[in-house]
Specification:
The protein is of the alpha+beta class and 424 residues long. It is built from 18 helices and 16 strands. The strands form three sheets. The chain has an eight-stranded mixed beta sheet with strand order 1-5-6-11-10-9-7-8, sandwiched between helices. Strands 13-12-14-15-16 form a five-stranded mixed beta sheet, sandwiched between helices.
Length: 424
């Protein structure tokens, strides 16, 4: 027995689980196409300076960092946005705006492993760069909504906030950026008392405490309460207006379940405007999230460029599908094995297998030279749907025996009608 195991927090994906992952990634790619996003494949390893620039202290402390053989400090990417921002300031600098880029793959964070949290995990990532309009924020929310719809997830809901509201209040009261980041990190973890302790101004502390207490199902009522609270904060009122414009566009264009939480914060430092996460009732972990980051491209040496994006946790979406028993029904394809009875029919049997594949049927071929009984046992173990048995007499009559492995029924069918029989 091998002593080798996977590295802690990383895992192998096999069989049905791997198939479900592939299905979710395929749906993410289809969604990208629907919304006009083009795929970008970026390196797993990037300069540490790039990845740590605006990621936030929480993520910086959890990066896999090492020196390459040239002595350069590099790290495994903890998310995609920094890499896409790099592209926007280099290879894609002169491309027409908006840039709409989609990526999928693994990212790495040294978190404590638990359900839905791994040290190597999968994301689908969407970035829309170049527009400061509410329509751009709206598109990212609509895209996430459409993606989850196509997966047939039930009961998911969006939690939406606006980091500009909190930042504006903290800015007006003279709180420096480093302290603001520390406050937001604690708010992200719902450590509200610890966050409030970092604020000296009694007025600012009271305003933030009131924001924390505002929660409601009706987003218009919530925004009315925020406006009343932010009456002395002009920039916070502008941020609330921006949030209202986005939510009006979203709710008028699709059916969507959402709540506004003005004290909602996310762990990344680069957010400047709208932020969101999406949940299902059965899980406490977010399936995805994102927001607006209007100063990140500039921080990486580009021109001032507005941008908004989101990432979806493929691992967590797979758990959500399994929790709701939709993972299996999400993928419906018939699986077939072709079994030649004798050596003499092997070539023709292989041609039939290839013909089925050409018509889009998942088809295996008996490769081990087993007798029919053993080959059928093996097909059962691997949960195949049909066995197509080819014998000399059947070939002379241009027929094949098709055995339904689930119903334990078999019939003789013309080879020309195999596809129709399998699909129906």
């Amino acid at each position: 027995m091998s002593a080798f195991q996977t590295v802690r927090g990383m895992r192998d994906l096999l069989n049905e689980e791997a198939k479900t992952f592939t299905h979710v990634i395929t749906k993410a790619r289809e969604t990208a196409l629907l919304f006009g996003f083009k795929e970008a494949i970026t390196p797993h390893v990037e300069p540490l300076e790039l990845l740590s620039a605006k990621s936030g202290e929480e993520i910086r402390q959890r990066m896999f960092i090492f020196k390459d053989l040239g002595g350069r400090q590099v790290a495994l990417r903890p998310e995609f946005t920094a890499s896409i921002a790099r592209l926007a300031t280099t290879n894609l600098k002169t491309e027409p705006k908006p840039l709409k880029l989609f990526s999928t793959g693994t990212v790495y964070r040294y978190d404590e492993p638990q359900r839905g949290r791994y040290r190597e995990f999968w994301q689908s990532n969407f970035e829309l760069i170049g527009s400061n309009k509410p329509e751009a924020d709206t598109e990212i929310i609509l895209l996430t909504n459409k993606f989850l719809q196509t997966l047939h997830l039930q009961g998911y809901a969006f939690k939406i906030g606006h980091i500009g509201i909190i930042r504006s209040i903290l800015n007006q009261d003279g709180i420096d950026e480093k302290t603001q980041n520390a406050i937001l990190q604690r708010m992200d973890k719902k450590e509200y008392e610890e966050a409030l302790k970092l604020i000296n101004s009694e007025k600012c502390r009271h305003t933030l405490q009131c924001l924390i207490n505002i929660k409601g199902k009706n987003w218009q009522d919530t925004l009315t309460q925020i406006n009343a609270l932010a009456s002395d904060y002009e920039k916070a009122k502008e941020a609330t207006k921006n949030l209202s414009e986005v939510l009006t566009l979203v709710t008028s264009s699709t059916e969507i379940s959402l709540t506004v939480e003005p004290a909602f914060a996310r762990g990344l430092e680069y957010y400047t405007g709208l932020i969101f996460e999406v949940y299902i009732p059965q899980l406490e972990i977010a399936l995805g999230g994102g927001g607006r980051y209007d100063r990140l491209i500039e921080a990486f040496g580009g021109e001032p460029t507005p941008a908004v994006g989101c990432a979806h946790g493929i691992d967590r979406i797979v758990i959500a599908l399994q929790t709701q028993n939709t993972a299996a029904t999400a993928i419906d394809e018939k699986k077939v094995v072709v079994i030649p009875i004798t050596e003499a029919v092997k070539t023709e049997a292989l041609k039939i297998a290839q013909s089925l594949r050409d018509q889009g049927v998942s088809t295996e071929f008996e490769l081990m030279g087993r007798k029919m009984g053993k080959a059928l046992e093996d097909a059962d173990k691997r949960n195949l749907d049909y066995a197509i048995i080819i014998g000399e007499r059947e070939l002379e009559e241009n027929t094949a025996v098709i055995k339904d492995l689930k119903k334990r029924e078999q019939t003789t069918v013309a080879i020309a009608n195999l596809i129709e029989k399998i699909k129906n």
